[in-house]
Amino acid sequence: MHPFASYVLRSYYRATGWNEDNLYANLTRSSNAILDFSVPRGLHLSISKAPNGLFNTSYSMNAMPSLNGSVGYIFTSCNLDVKSSGSVRFKDMVERFKVYDQPRRPEGKEEEWFAGERADTRDYLLYGRLYLPTGRLDALYSTRLSPTLQALVAAISDPRSTLSSEKRSRGDNVSNVMFSLQHDIGKWCSEYTYSAEDGMLGVRVLHNFGRLRNPTEPPEDLTSPPGTRPKRVDEEEATGGGLKGRVSAGAEFYISAKERSAGVSTGIRFTTLPDATPPSFQSPQPSSSSPLAQSSRSPPSQPPTTITALFNPMMGHISTAYAARVSRDLSMCSRFDFNVYSYDSEWTMGAEWWMRRAASKHEDELEPSLIPPEQPPVPVPQAESLDIPSDIHGVVKARISTNNNVSLMWEGRLKQMLVSLGFVSDLSSRSKPIKAIGLELSYFSAG
Known about the structure:
Elements: H1 4-16, H2 29-35, E1 42-50, E2 55-64, E3 68-76, E4 113-114, E5 117-118, E6 124-132, E7 137-146, E8 149-157, H3 165-169, E9 176-184, E10 188-195, E11 200-208, E12 245-256, E13 261-272, H4 291-295, E14 305-312, E15 317-325, E16 330-339, E17 345-356, H5 361-364, E18 392-401, E19 405-414, E20 417-426, E21 434-446
Parallel strand pairs: 1-21
Antiparallel strand pairs: 1-2, 2-3, 3-6, 4-5, 6-7, 7-8, 8-9, 9-10, 10-11, 11-12, 12-13, 13-14, 14-15, 15-16, 16-17, 17-18, 18-19, 19-20, 20-21
């Protein structure tokens, strides 16, 4: 379950038109959502409040295995449409598998002039969180320097760190400040980072092959038959026995002056077409009786699929992942990790299953007049954007790997509260088969 601060940050990116998915760091986001979900440890409680669209507060407490808590505040320059935990779209609060929107060049907000002078200001977000009783402080500042340029400053201060005396005598600092500059033009996205604690410089680059869709181009009519729809600019002729999609490739390089070390990695991603157009947060929610909603229940012409491969030549690590939505409510993923130097390997499999309320009789009955005769299914791989907000009430995630670790988690909504319940088990241990178990309760209100 996304923390409230992450939900507000994503809402800020949507409000300002920034595409956080077009980053090399998020190249494997689809497979990570299924295989690397975080199971709560112990008992965690969170209460948040958004008194207005600019200011948000958050309070959290861990009751088990140790008692601690935190207080957080968020302020933004633009009004955000923050929902309450009882009315927020459930899929917006869960990291899940999806085929992300086609990259496009970010657009800046319209200029505002007053008395011959420009009156609009650039957007920004301020976030701070204080942890008790340790006294650790986390801070984040994000601002848009231009329509295609975003700057971030993140800071951590931990006066009661658990660093050993040996590390302290070596000069390791428990506090750190990191600067990041992101430049996104749609086809290319680059990120430059600097970490003050270890003097590390890093560069990340991601390139999307193929032409980009013009933001002013009207969205395609998903209700029309495939033969009558206009051909997409990056769509190729249909070929049997294969998937149509787009390819993205990127790399990262970093060097640390303090550690006198460097690193490099490269990756490639394939995702199927067509993808979400327009973005899911801009798509209107059709009624359950509309032809568009009924067509979303039909299987797409090709399963929404994401294939990724990462390679770190210095560490000798190779990771490949295959994720696909095999039905409307079931997505599965498989990942294989291998080290060419030590020959160590790991195979991980996982799945996520969305739980829905039983459809009413009115929803199950289709008007014959609304069903075109002998019409092939309409390809809508981003069917989650067409779901009725109150239809989905939970998701079950599971993963198992060759190192005998098994994880199972359920996330759902009970009344006005979001709940996460899960456990991690080690099948090879007879003395302690359950490594961790936890429950997380989250409630937030708006207005």
